[in-house]
């Protein structure tokens, strides 16, 4: 309505200008000098008034875009003075600023949650820029293991301990390696693994180290290598879709800021996305506390959970990353009233593992499709299925896929499916697989 009022006022001014110009021309034609002077004064006034009217709104928009450019979302635009259309515009600007500040605050809270998760583990973790050496993030355990103070650039280590720098930062450890390092005239044994990842144009290296000297003998060292793989596997499985969902939310905000008239900012969608990130972070926190002793867990945090709610959380989390890989995913429930007594965080972890395995199986398919299906069979058991049309599983390894640390993948850890089976056993349920090589697989969770 306010936009229409603005157009109406602008049209009225243009109409007056046209009429005044015609009157001015007519007065000259009939040689009425006095009328010409009066009309020319009115024409000059109308031109100034129209210019000011149009300029005022563009100045308001220019102020807002300048604030966005410099990320100054604390600015407040006066909503109680000035023309009605300008006040309406200012109200919209203030609402966008409030929304962005709230989202930034929530994103910061999610970052703190993830940071606390990684701070709680006694494994040293550091990520740094490969080109500049600037540290993106590291936890306290990393400095404690290497007996180093906090530093912002890895060149600090190079200047103080060149040999340690070469071993930790310059040597690549694609697979977990057990090695000894010299610290203060003493040698300690550590387990180290690293990976390189890309963020836009920058390449980063993530290093994970574990001090195993005091607690492990040679056989135990091998077990710790696999245990480290468990942690890395499960944390990355959760962080990747969280990051993808955060990127999608950020992109939607950017479009809404740059093209406010063409884009409709849905606060409900933003709220749902942020809530999903929070829920998965809490699940990851719980997993970080229990993954080492999962085989000894005798008590689950069972809660009555709607399957539809479980599926909605996973869909919000996984959809952006799957769309980026051009893989379709469909969630279907025979009845919206289906409920389970489960530990929702752990079952989410199982479904995420199965979906990611399906993604890997479909990576070479042009019409890749994943279906997540929930139903109740004739025995009143509730069954959750993850179905894909991928490469399938060869018969000769099908019976071994749930054996811990067995894997047919070059980069696999062999713990994902064994962990899924363990979680289902804790719920007194079963996990069943049916697969045809070249056609796809069906994993069923039977409760």
From TrEMBL:
<dbReference type="InterPro" id="IPR004358">
    <property type="entry name" value="Sig_transdc_His_kin-like_C"/>
</dbReference>
<dbReference type="GO" id="GO:0000155">
    <property type="term" value="F:phosphorelay sensor kinase activity"/>
</dbReference>
<keyword id="KW-0808">Transferase</keyword>
<dbReference type="InterPro" id="IPR003594">
    <property type="entry name" value="HATPase_dom"/>
</dbReference>
<protein>
    <recommendedName>
        <fullName>histidine kinase</fullName>
        <ecNumber>2.7.13.3</ecNumber>
    </recommendedName>
</protein>
<feature type="transmembrane region" description="Helical">
    <location>
        <begin position="7"/>
        <end position="29"/>
    </location>
</feature>
<keyword id="KW-0472">Membrane</keyword>
<feature type="domain" description="Histidine kinase">
    <location>
        <begin position="230"/>
        <end position="447"/>
    </location>
</feature>
<keyword id="KW-0597">Phosphoprotein</keyword>
<keyword id="KW-0418">Kinase</keyword>
<dbReference type="InterPro" id="IPR005467">
    <property type="entry name" value="His_kinase_dom"/>
</dbReference>
<dbReference type="Pfam" id="PF02518">
    <property type="entry name" value="HATPase_c"/>
</dbReference>
<dbReference type="InterPro" id="IPR036890">
    <property type="entry name" value="HATPase_C_sf"/>
</dbReference>
<keyword id="KW-1133">Transmembrane helix</keyword>
<feature type="transmembrane region" description="Helical">
    <location>
        <begin position="35"/>
        <end position="54"/>
    </location>
</feature>
<keyword id="KW-0812">Transmembrane</keyword>
